[in-house]
Amino acid sequence: MTTVQEDRRAPERRTEQPPAPNRVLGALAAPVRALRDAPRRPLTAAALIALLSLLTYATVRHFVGTSMVDMIVYRAEGAAVARGEDLYAIRVTEWNLPATYPPFAAMLFVPTTWFGIGVLRVAITAGNVALLALLAHLSFKLVGWPRRDLRPVGVVLVAGLGVWLEPVFTTLRYGQINLVLACLILWDLTRPDGRRSKGIAIGIAAGIKLTPGLFAVYLLITGRIRAAFVAGLTFLGTFLLGAAVLPDATYGFWTKYLYDSTRVGKTVIVDNQSVRGAVARLLHTENPGTLATLAGALVAVAGLTVAAWAYRSAPWLRRSEAWGVCCAAVTAVLISPISWTHHWIWCVPVLVLLASEAAHEHSRPEGVRRLRWRPIFAATLLAFLSFGMWIVPHKGDLDLTLPALSQFPASVYPITGVCFLAVAALRVRARRRAAGAPLGRFPRQRGGQGGAGAREAQQAPAAR
Questions:
Q1: What angle do CA 287, 289, 294 make, to 5 degrees?
Q2: Cα gap 146→50, rounded to integer Å
Q3: Nearest to 101 by CA among 127, 74, 120
Q4: Signal peptide span per the entry (predicted)?
Q5: Tens of pLDDT, residues 108-127
Q6: Which of 19, 210, 358, 399 has the greatest count of CB atoms below 10 A from its CB?
């Protein structure tokens, strides 16, 4: 290359590297542009509705009271790390709650010790509402619906009205981290499969709380081997970091405390909305034993099978990745030995997916329109708005003696989750049959630029 050529190209290289402030503004450009392109009247109406809903929520929260006990536990874990105390010996709040997360999570909680409880209550509540908006955005991106200019309207509505969904309500009430984990996972899954770093966020989420590790299994069984290994290696990195900083706590967690279910809570109480909890209440026992284990194993195999089947049915199934991800998420919550009601935060992408199917159904000509998805969406929405498990008598030992008529509301989430997996299986089966494709045949593995982000562009015209 000549000197003249180098001189001519030098200014180009300088302009390709904007200063740091410009890069920050560039990161904000997409949401600002989306808000600017959104239709004014619907966006203004959505903002007013969301504001009214949040003000009502704040009023209800003030009179009901919110303990935010999990936030207090997280802060105590961070304090134990900062002071060099025994992490798993701490007991805080009037319920004597212990630390139950891996040491890596406790290390991340250290910054919470820099602020008082009052400041944390406001900051974490506001942060969770913002994360709810982000989860809505990622859910719309995963599903590829609605059209791009209407998505800010949907995000604002979900952020404002979503606080009344019971899993969101209890996440805010306890100061939980479920929304952080869900956003990490969905952000990873909506990135193109060709990204070498795909899987990192899932590995970090699994390092904080083990259940997200099932999404690495989902990546593996859907043929995205590299992303699955990236997730696994990232998780291993969180373990090694915890072991380097907190060796005693790491040894204690992985050899003892992880297997002590009494530290987490009772299996039989209505707070636990897993398959195991539902079986325990049905059998009126605190230890449902082998039957619950077999039921959980059956749901795990069935759920992951449907998730992989949906993902690999992309040539025939609209929103195949969304169906696969939602099936994997529901399976993860169902099979965990203890899944508190706020763990069902995955109701947000599930409801977005069902709403998209209902909208597509409504857009069809009346002569061929079938009323299937709107009732399914309405029933699912009602389940997560019902607060059913809190309505049945459950104080003291009443969880052990629930009558037959109380079993449904007491286990409304596992029942809804199993029904969702069944609906997903029927959906995949119907689409394959309609296309004349064999039920068990998988198409050739898609290229590295697949994933929800790329498929969204291909499916967007049909989704509208």
A1: 140
A2: 19
A3: 74
A4: none
A5: 999 999 999 999 999 999 99
A6: 399
Give the residue, 308 or 396, on which the prediction is more confident.
308
* Nearest residue to 301 (alpha-carbon basis) of 267, 340, 328: 328
Instruction: Report the 10 Å Cβ neighbour count for 210.
Output: 15
Task: Please state, for a pLDDT cut of 70, what percent of the chain lies above it.
Answer: 86
Mean pLDDT of 273-287: 95
**CA nearest neighbour of 303 among 194, 227, 223, 221:** 221
Cβ proximity of 213 and 235 under 8 Å: yes
**The dihedral sign for the CA sequence 43, 29, 128, 415:** positive
Amino acid identity for residue 206 in this structure: A
Give CA–CA dist 86/146, Å, rounded. 50
Contacts of residue 396, Cβ cutoff 8 Å, sequence gap at least 6: none
Cα 190 to Cα 428: distance, rounded to the nearest angstrom: 21
Of all helices (H) and strands (E), which one includes residue 388?
Answer: helix 388-391
- Alpha-carbon gap, residue 308 to 222, rounded angstroms: 5
